[in-house]
């Protein structure tokens, strides 16, 4: 039987709170057990597909606690990479660099129809 140390699962982290060491510990854990490096969302996707297909023979040698730790490690990496991906995709760009979407305030300097009609009547010499 293979013996491993627990890997903590962390939610709501930021780069300032040690996320790099969090990711590294999860990556090292998976690499030690399965001999694969998980550095991207695609790596995790392939790893989980291969794991689900039963192609890692070491899985059968591990007890349920280690199974849970491996799943938690993969999930933690997935969450960290997704958060990083979302943060990168949410960075704002100037409107000139984003031709697909541009903010326009249709209510800026709006004139009410009642006011416009009243001014037109005044201009025509009405009351």
Automatic annotation (TrEMBL):
It comes from the Eukaryota. This is Uncharacterized protein. It comes from Artemisia annua (Sweet wormwood).
């Amino acid at each position: 039987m293979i013996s491993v140390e627990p890997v903590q699962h962390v939610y709501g982290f930021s780069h300032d709170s040690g996320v790099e060491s969090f990711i590294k510990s999860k990556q090292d854990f998976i690499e030690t057990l399965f001999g694969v490096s998980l550095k991207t969302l695609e790596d995790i996707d392939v790893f989980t597909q291969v794991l689900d297909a039963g192609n890692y023979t070491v899985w059968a040698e591990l007890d349920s606690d280690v199974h849970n730790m491996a799943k938690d490690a993969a999930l933690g990496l997935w969450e960290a990479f997704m958060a990083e991906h979302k943060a990168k995709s949410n960075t704002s760009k100037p409107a000139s660099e984003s031709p697909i979407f541009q903010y326009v305030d249709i209510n800026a300097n709006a004139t009410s129809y009642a006011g416009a009609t009243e001014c037109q009547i005044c201009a025509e010499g009405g009351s």
